[in-house]
Amino acid sequence: xxxxxxxxxxxxxxxxxxxxxxxxxxxxxxxxxxxxxxxxxxxxxxxxxxxxxxxxxxxxxxxxxxxxxxxxxxxxxxxxxxxxxxxxxxxxxxxxxxxxxxxxxxxxxxxxxxxxxxxxxxxxxxxxxxxxxxxxxxxxxxxxxxxxxxxxxxxxxxxxxxxxxxxxxxxxxxxxxxxxxxxxxxxxxxxxxxxxxxxxxxxxxxxxxxxxxxxxxxxxxxxxxxxxxxxxxxxxxxxxxxxxxxxxxxxxxxxxxxxxxxxxxxxxxxxxxxxxxxxxxxxxxxxxxxxxxxxxxxxxxxxxxxxxxxxxxxxxxxxxxxxxxxxxxxxxxxxxxxxxxxxxxxxxxxxxxxxxxxxxxxxxxxxxxxxxxxxxxxxxxxxxxxxxxxxxxxxxxxxxxxxxxxxxxxxxxxxxxxxxxxxxxxxxxxxxxxxxxxxxxxxxxxxxxxxxxxxxxxxxxxxxxxxxxxxxxxxxxxxxxxxxxxxxxxxxxxxxxxxxxxxxxxxxxxxxxxxxxxxxxxxxxxxxxxxxxxxxxxxxxxxxxxxxxxxxxxxxxxxxxxxxxxxxxxxxxxxxxxxxxxxxxxxxxxxxxxxxxxxxxxxxxxxxxxxxxxxxxxxxxxxxxxxxxxxxxxxxxxxxxxxxxxxxxxxxxxxxxxxxxxxxxxxxxxxxxxxxxxxxxxxxxxxxxxxxxxxxxxxxxxxxxxx
Amino acid sequence: xxxxxxxxxxxxxxxxxxxxxxxxxxxxxxxxxxxxxxxxxxxxxxxxxxxxxxxxxxxxxxxxxxxxxxxxxxxxxxxxxxxxxxxxxxxxxxxxxxxxxxxxxxxxxxxxxxxxxxxxxxxxxxxxxxxxxxxxxxxxxxxxxxxxxxxxxxxxxxxxxxxxxxxxxxxxxxxxxxxxxxxxxxxxxxxxxxxxxxxxxxxxxxxxxxxxxxxxxxxxxxxxxxxxxxxxxxxxxxxxxxxxxxxxxxxxxxxxxxxxxxxxxxxxxxxxxxxxxxxxxxxxxxxxxxxxxxxxxxxxxxxxxxxxxxxxxxxxxxxxxxxxxxxxxxxxxxxxxxxxxxxxxxxxxxxxxxxxxxxxxxxxxxxxxxxxxxxxxxxxxxxxxxxxxxxxxxxxxxxxxxxxxxxxxxxxxxxxxxxxxxxxxxxxxxxxxxxxxxxxxxxxxxxxxxxxxxxxxxxxxxxxxxxxxxxxxxxxxxxxxxxxxxxxxxxxxxxxxxxxxxxxxxxxxxxxxxxxxxxxxxxxxxxxxxxxxxxxxxxxxxxxxxxxxxxxxxxxxxxxxxxxxxxxxxxxxxxxxxxxxxxxxxxxxxxxxxxxxxxxxxxxxxxxxxxxxxxxxxxxxxxxxxxxxxxxxxxxxxxxxxxxxxxxxxxxxxxxxxxxxxxxxxxxxxxxxxxxxxxxxxxxxxxxxxxxxxxxxxxxxxxxxxx
Lengths: 707, 707
Fold this sequence. Notes:
The structure is a homodimer of 707-residue chains.
Chain A (H helix, E strand, L loop, with lengths): L2 H12 L3 E5 L8 H11 L5 E5 L5 E2 L2 E2 L13 E4 L3 H13 L4 E4 L9 H16 L3 E3 L5 E4 L6 E4 L7 E8 L2 H10 L7 E6 L8 H9 L6 E6 L5 H14 L2 E5 L4 H11 L6 H10 L3 E2 L3 H13 L8 E5 L2 H13 L9 H10 L10 E2 L6 H13 L5 E7 L6 H14 L5 E6 L4 H8 L7 E2 L2 H20 L11 H14 L3 E2 L1 H10 L7 E4 L2 H11 L3 E7 L11 E5 L2 H17 L6 E8 L3 E13 L2 E8 L3 H5 L2 E5 L4 H10 L2 H5 L10 H17 L3 E12 L4 E3 L3 E4 L1
Parallel strand pairs in A: 1-2, 1-5, 5-6, 6-7, 10-11, 10-12, 12-13, 13-14, 15-16, 15-17, 17-18, 18-19
Antiparallel strand pairs in A: 3-4, 8-9, 8-11, 20-30, 21-24, 22-23, 22-24, 25-26, 25-28, 26-27, 28-29, 28-30
């Protein structure tokens, strides 16, 4: 099956017009019974065929002994029978011309090796016969589309409809989420519990939703990623069209172990996961709650043109708290213009200050509230409005939401988010008056501000992200020759001189250097590049130069050079390393400014990651290092350079000149190009890159490891 | 009034047996009406006297024209009349022998200077006449004590009873909180809206609750602190007896400005606030929601003896998520023993793995759940139990809580916390079966784990905190003489030599040094302490030595010393600084390991703060520096040294030897002792403290600023 055919088949499942439930049951509390009940209760507009040899009728619907007995066309078979008979049942489906399967049953890969073998047999059969299967070990699927209302999962609660596609790798969690979502008024469009992903996997689903206009945002709970490279590509593409919000668990060491024992799948290296997700601009949340807050805001808010936040409140304290919270997330508060202030003064009582946060005070009437909201929304300096309402004496919570809904229509470009601390019956009362509320309403300031932050992040990503990977002129042949040479010599770590040559070939800025074989040569080089100089050995047989005294720094004149040259060669003789000694490199000593950086390429699983951060002694200790997937886009190179505290260190520290950010980005892009050109390179360390007081930067050492 | 009298008077207000509401009204929606209604609705057990000249009866209770007409004893007058007549009303109260006042009215300090003047007059009158006043500009007070049921605030919702004392500086926020708390099942014992704190302030309230056994934890929302020193002392003392959880807003720059415009009070320097709170072990939360999560856990959980967490779940995904979350907070997962595992195997189906998180899988019965919970609680290796329940097919959420309540009685030393993702009607159903639920129930893993983290933090604080301030033998007289000398000379920044002498006198480890006046002296010193050496000037007239070339490092031999000595003196001559030159210090050049630290004393408002972190070039950029209030306790010195990434830098970096943590703590304690002994010292910088490869540490420069 090609991709288009797969997507079409998945569509037939998710929009099935007729469903056979195999293993349907009349016994309350069983999955087979719940599945039928849910289909009925949620008002499925298609045809339901319960299948169970034991019953004539289930929940009032005629039952069939086998799918082969159903004479009409069946789009989808939902199977909930013991694992041992699943394959036979699927074979029957095939005979009955049913190609779409949702396999609820568990007892496969997640249980033991026998289960794994059964799962393999099933997926082989599915592939061979051009069928498609979701599961096994899953909760089922959901599609709230009003003319379909397909609820083929056994979560006990019916969802409310929205525009979200939710896919989860934990079926039970899907159930918990479906229980919770109506309580926080978050609507789903589709839910797919992917289970063990024997056939359909998370990648299929993202691509399916990419092409389904009913889905406006994609929420994923995943524990493992089936194909890193493909996952990254798909996320990069789809996330530009509709936001993807991900929880990828197994972030911590104990969490990784827990995930492995849960699904039997390896959680994967979180550094790689993080690099892929952030590189694709995907929003990664740590906690379920955070994911839903973000989804709530994304469900109802446009991306603002201007990001400046105005806070309207009838209580000072929460206004201050929300302002603090905005500060935590680096969200800028709008500076109200004199014009705006004078308009506000006209509609507000004199006790209300006209600042931002705008405190209309506890006695504010509905009119004052709404007038103030409109003035703020109308102001050019305001891009986003956060409305805080506390029920204090007069309860007009519902009315204020009504007014905000109207204002939203009038000012469609400006997101409105709200925090309401009112009575418990507010949602009920609101529902009676505002049927489809489109203002996100939270209980606490942090929820609203966190969601808003993610909205602004997405705006930045979409407007700023240059996802192109620039190409630089480099001397590829030179590198090819060196690498061929290494292959012949079976070298794993390239020695210093050829490493430096490779850097030169790819335009990595290096301190001046040249190789010497005799003192006389060394002296000439030192004279040419200028003292002080450094001596460092280049040898195939020595991995750690410094450990054997193979590096001598701060040589001030010819006399010192002579002494150190002789001493160095003597040390090499003593440890019998003269043989392997290629040459001694004479390098210009860089007088640094204490500002040292590290750039490089790391390797995780099947992927190259570009790396940047604080170098030198601080590398291991401070771990101010970030990673991004290769090939690196211009946007991600920029992000990498500006993400850590290294950014501040590149600035004007102690009066030293700033280091060029774009030059540093270029180093990273050039390294990324190198590993794109030469897959056999596993890791590169450019550590340290020293910045001088003048803001110039020079790599002074190179480490290149081959696969 | 002394403290005991004040506390007694506050008690008379908070436990008032008779209340006059002055400004009571029959008009719905007015504060004067709400106050009466709330008192009645909440079932106040005392006597209510509405006072308003206009009415004979308010809400069915006979009204009085003036408090003077009330013949019975009145403990408390709650006043809600226009600000202009407040003073007269208070005078009447005084005549009527009512000494306790809760002043609801606003229009005072928070409004304008006229209001401020009125407030001043009122507080003067109160003080002069031995009265006590809460407010003005406040919501009122609450005491849910079952034989009192005093609700003298105008929040629209009645609270549920608990053991929490809540004080807030924002009256409107108090109302919002009271609306919300019943929805999250958090009970209050008392609430005091402190308003403008014209008389009773936050310090009185903390001390009052310190002595009220009905209060088990104290929640504060504050925007300003009336007396830093006293606040710190009280927090240190009271927090050891009952937990104090604080939101202090104005954390960020914009938040500080917002707070100032809200209450008219300065938010204060957040560095100082943070140092005071963390030094006292007070739990500071950033967000309201977090505060309530913590309060929820503290309301129902003992401090565990053993901190290892076991997670019991019927769904794999949430188990993994909770494990990740525990990892985020450095909470250790219990390693289940073989004994525990075999017990679990006996009660669980074979599909359930017996790991931690323990996934009893979706089909788990109530019995399996409860048996597993008991086995975990019974295991020595488990100290805390987190129970996650998702309603999947069989709904036994209420029953499981019932069982957990019983297990809690059986294992009273082990906290049980829970996450239930079930149907919206769960709280209603639960209430019918479990009247007073004592298991904290959250919707999301992060809420439970965050609350648990704070419980563990408190346990650490109470068990580890040595709040004593050790005393070291020092040469106080020497310092006294130097400071007297400086006073005479009117010096603000002590020059280098006397600064180094002060360090010596207080036992701060310094690189070897001695002062020289001639080259010959310098040469002798250098010979004695050994090359390489550093030269640095000591001068009263030069503040920044390095800026004028007053420091020369890395002098390797006598020849270099001569050259540099002459050059240094020439430079001083050129800028006419020979006159002010006290001497030139010859100091041993410390060959560092790149590990540089800063220790010192900073000064904020009226307080000294000890400071520690990464020094050198990284100080400004990385801001890995923390602060703690002086006088520093042994506990806080330890915390200071271990709080930042400087801790890792003190460890075995690049094979260099570790730096002694206790010696570093001693440096901080000695500095703290110095500013206790000499109040006139404003700031001290010991920057950098250099650590050698051998793990020894030496201060190489000193900066002492006087007030």
